[in-house]
From TrEMBL:
Alphabetical keyword list: Hydrolase
GO molecular function annotations of the record: agmatine deiminase activity; protein-arginine deiminase activity
Listed PANTHER family: AGMATINE DEIMINASE-RELATED (PTHR31377)
Record-linked InterPro entries: Peptidyl-Arg-deiminase_porph
SUPFAM superfamilies: Pentein
Gene3D superfamilies the UniProt entry points to: L-arginine/glycine Amidinotransferase, Chain A (3.75.10.10)
Domain of life: Bacteria
Example GO BP: putrescine biosynthetic process
Name under which the protein is recorded: Agmatine deiminase
Organism: Pseudoxanthomonas taiwanensis
Amino acid sequence: MTDKLRFPAEWEPQSAILIAWPHAGTDWAERLGEVEETYIALVAAVTRFQDCWICVADDDVETYAEARLRSARVDMRRVRFIPFDYDDTWLRDSGPITLREGGGFRILDFRFTAWGGKFEAGRDDRLVEALCAQGLFGATPRQRIDFALEGGAIETDGAGTLLTTWRCLHERHPQASREELTAKLSGWLAQDRVLWLDHGGLEGDDTDAHIDTLARFAPDDAIVFQACDDPADTHYAELQAMAGEIAALRTRDGRPYRLFPLPWARPILDGGRRLAASYANFLVLNGAVLMPAYGDPADALAADVLARAYPGREVVQVPCRPLIWQNGSLHCITMQLPAGLPA
């Protein structure tokens, strides 16, 4: 890791959270009312602690979103609307990855292929360029990288260690060896260690095992991860194997990480299809952790785990059952912007 270039951890100070408002032209159309309630709850929670930037597809979407948020008594002084016509709302994967560079920043713009070409992504792949063209980040340089990588596939501790899954990166780049991918990620993201997990994955997840559904770094050499304690569940063997891999990881100075296993929610089905209800898909804010809640008894247990992993931060539950219908959750629809970045 160079002194000039650094990939900050999510728990470092932020200026804003970036999201995109769902509308009838997105895949949310069939259950738009339900998912709007989740977005309203999300914006209400974010604006208690910091600004929220909301991409809107057109003037009508902006007018409607503003009316819904005002009716929910959201602090609109902390809301900024950004015009951009997007394919979908998974901004963790299409949004900007920001590095600190000396006293400024560098914005990385990786190629977004909608998780290996599963969906249309032409407009979403232009999101970062469009945000920069609107002057939202001032003179911050944008580095376009012709390499498919989603923000949900990588997790950093802010000190030069990256955590990711082999399944996802191998799926995107089947011809590349682990050594080649390690070198590329280390170079672009200013990391000097890449830790790979070979196990882990959730039914109902079409990201090919994004790390942000499975395991996350926390302050002071800790890892929070999705556990499964039900031997009868189809996830049990795979998540047990992942837990063993995580327990074997070592910090930079050779110590085991402090581990915080998250509880396992009961199966949530949609027409017989298992949905990916992961508590690891939480979002860290200034002074808070927003936790995906699924209306399950395990919600309260997960909140307790996150409170211990992030002491001094308020844990706020955001209802996320509508999100997992489209195969993602809370962290997947958001992207944090580091403090000092916006112009």
